[in-house]
Amino acid sequence: MPAASLLPLFGSAPGPGTLGGPAGSGAGGGGRKAASPGAFRLTEKFVLLLVFSAFITLCFGAIFFLPDSSKLLSGVFFHSAALQPPPPPPGGQPRAPPQPGGGPAAAVAAGGAGSLERIRADHERALREAKETLQKLPEEIRRDIRQDKEKLLQDARDRKEAGAPGLPQRLFRQPVGAVGQEPADPDVRQRREKIKEMMKHAWDNYKRYAWGLNELKPISKQGHSSNLFGNIQGATIVDALDTLYIMEMKEEFKEAKEWVEKNLDFNVNAEISVFEVNIRFVGGLLSAYYLSGEEVFRKKAVELGEKLLPAFNTPTGIPWALLNIKSGIGRNWPWASGGSSILAEFGTLHLEFVHLSHLSGNPVFAEKVMNIRKVLNRLDKPEGLYPNYLNPSSGQWGQHHVSIGGLGDSFYEYLLKAWLMSDKTDEDGKKMYYDAVQAIEAHLIRKSGGGLTYIAEWKGGLLEHKMGHLTCFAGGMFALGADGAPNDKTGHHIELGAEIARTCHESYDRTRMKLGPEAFRFDGGVEAIATRQNEKYYILRPEVIETYMYMWRLTHDPKYRQWGWEAVEALEKHCRVDGGYSGIRDVYNNHESHDDVQQSFFLSETLKYLYLLFSEDDLLPFEHWVFNTEAHPLPILHKDDGNKEENQK
Ligand code: DMJ
């Protein structure tokens, strides 16, 4: 209460009546003899006037400078100047209703005239309270302050018990398939156990040598920090939470959760990659919440989502790649064509942001990603293809480089999964996905002389016959999307997925270590082989195993489990070291040269996809879950569960 903070003035001031009391009774009259009223009349009057005006000045000054005085003053002096509703958002979209936790600015923005009235009434009430307080005895004011403090403390306690501050209460219902049955076949069970043991080795060593840091250096046995996360810490913990959960590593999950509760801190001065933080941290927290129902994960996910919002403050709403989460200042990678944002980065926020709106009740997250769709839909696409670079200021494409691997990949994945996650109601996402696949087939997919299907890259109309390890995820994507393929193309899309899986398996099989290189080529007399030294490394990436997992689930062809097991053996032979798992510098070499990094996606993706490959289909079934691009499972928002509106945002 603003006027309550005037108390110090009263605390040291004389009691009521002192100012007008008999002279000499106060401390100031100590040396003065009683005198006839007439002798000091003028001087006394003058002194009294001075004291009185000093007191008034102090009171008035206090109103200006004490923390809550703005409430008072705005009611008195500033009336409605600051209360004009802001202009409508670009595109003339209806403005969202006020949301819980949206704050006064959001209320003004959303509520229009009603909000103005409310705020004016608030100011008048504050003024009235201030006047009443000025008339109270100091003892009464002290008592009021005590009561206010107690109430604040109690409110804080209540909020803690009720869950996240500002978040609506939510009844948690665990989605179907958060736990599955043991595999019936004992060999499969044994293989799955082995993968769990690998997870334990990776986790225990991270815990021993790098606990709380982002990643582990398994050779030098210390923490590894990547500048993708600024100084946000704990990437491996957050990325691994859901893998620990589905592998039923309960103790480890519990310690990870406790770390998140006590240490995961986003109030840091950090420039982060919006994409990486979204797919790993937001995605990891969302999955952990949906699997376990622990409120802390919902709260942290929404808190982080809010920190990412300033990235969208660009003329088009296409977000920056990099954002300082303290200052809210964004920028793009200096190397990206003409200051562009990257397709795979701004196009890989959709799933998480729709879920953030779902869990927070705040539509702003979904609005931001829907706007990206609108911008893309307004643009002409060369040959129906999406270039990897888009300038967030001009809204124009940068360099015409198209890739289904690095820089482009998960944009396509998220179009398909947005449709699936919406319980197949997001028709826009569906159309964009199948149109894009048609253009990719026409212009990028080729067959080698030896019969291997591959996806080339496109540079201004010219093909580079190279396929990245990252591109191998597309096998799983084509198969997953087969069901909805237009013009009776279901079988064709499954076949396309199978062909990409085979090509990617060849890229592993043609190396000495049976692990795939970062990129492989189909020119200069080679097929599915890396020819450049700087493309021969393997950094524990998941994409090939991811495709095996999808192909297994959708076809139950045993070769996919066989290929997955070959990868397990190769990982154990070449990547496992005392201190965890490490990437390899050259997979064609006889001897391992380790890169000394245990990537967080090894725990979140590679090991999870392997575990699912050797699980029954009832664990995280495709009818109920989609995986984000970091393999974090997100539940499908079924329309009969009352999610119709959510799906249409
Ligand atoms: C992961 O972080 C994600 O899969 C992302 O989409 C691509 N790169 C890595 C794994 O290779």
Provide a brief overview of the structure.
The protein has helices spanning 7-12, 41-65, 69-78, 103-111, 113-134, 138-162, 186-210, 235-246, 250-263, 274-292, 295-308, 343-346, 350-360, 364-378, 409-421, 427-443, 473-480, 490-509, 543-555, 559-575, 600-613, 644-648, and strands at 215-217, 222-224, 271-273, 322-324, 330-331, 341-342, 389-390, 401-402, 445-447, 453-455, 457-459, 462-464, 466-468, 519-521, 576-577, 580-581, 625-627, 633-635. The longest helix is centred in the N-terminal third of the chain and has 25 residues, at 41-65.
| Gyration radius, in Å | 32 Å
| N-C termini distance | 40 Å
Provide the residue-averaged pLDDT: 84
How many β-strand stretches?
18
CATH architecture of the domain at 187-635: Alpha/alpha barrel
Residues in helix, %: 40-55%
* Ligand identities: 1-deoxymannojirimycin
Gross morphology is globular
Total helices: the number is 22
Give the CATH topology of the domain at 187-635: Glycosyltransferase
Strand arrangement, largest sheet? 3-4-5
Biggest pleated sheet: 3 strands, antiparallel
Structural class: mainly alpha
CATH hierarchy class name of the domain at 187-635? Mainly Alpha
Q: Tell me what portion of residues adopts beta-strand conformation.
A: 5-15%
Are there runs of 5+ residues with pLDDT below 50, and where?
Answer: 1-40, 61-113, 156-163
